[in-house]
Amino acid sequence: MVGPRGSGKKYETPPKPWQQNRMQDEENLIEEFGLKNKKELWIEESKLREYRREARKLQAALGKETEQSEIAKKEKQQFLDKLKKFGLINQDQTLGDVLGLNTRAILDRRLQTQVYKKGYAKTIKQARQFIVHGHIAIDQEKVTTPSYKLKKQEENKIHYSQTSPLNEEPHPESPERATKEEK
């Protein structure tokens, strides 16, 4: 039973918790994407499983010739549009391509990863710190959640917050300044 405080867990733990290969892969992903703990990784993997389940369900519904197939076509288009909006698939991809998604594709759409890739932070962990401390904004709005999923149109709207000291040129932690000093 779910209590009054929330809707319960948003992730599934691995069925066999002590598999060495899986644990090593998880550690590599945590290090590469600067995740806080395995729970964050399991949340993203659960989201990926949810996408795959939906794609399989829609493929099965489209395979049957019934009145449900018209509804399934609309649901398929809505589902693909949602994934395109988040940049997980391209315009010409299909449900089969959704089944080919991996955890890296989902982790790559996190704000923390994009801040690091766009050069607003020197390291992936520094990107997390900048976000949590309120130094990063998307379209003039502070975002303090490193796991925020960026929509495709928001990619170019990432910048330092107006009130952040990183917005000023001489700040010592500003990556732009660090690259100028290295030259």
**What about the largest sheet?**
3 strands, antiparallel
Placed side by side, the strands forming the largest sheet appear as: 2-1-3
Global shape: globular
Number of strands: 3
Give the proportion of residues in helices.
40-55%
Contiguous helical run count:
8
Order of helices and strands: HHHHHHHEEEH
Stretches where pLDDT is under 50 for at least 5 consecutive residues are: none
User: CA-to-CA gap between the ends?
Assistant: 60 Å
Q: Helices and strands: which structural class?
A: mainly alpha
Average per-residue pLDDT, rounded, comes to 90
Q: Radius of gyration from the CA trace?
A: 20 Å
Strand share of the residues?
under 5%
Task: Walk me through the structure.
- The protein is mainly alpha-helical and 183 residues long.
- The protein has 8 helices and 3 strands; from the N terminus they run H-H-H-H-H-H-H-E-E-E-H.
- The protein has a 3-stranded antiparallel sheet with strand order 2-1-3.
- It starts with 19 loop residues before the first helix and ends with a helix.
- The mean pLDDT is 90.
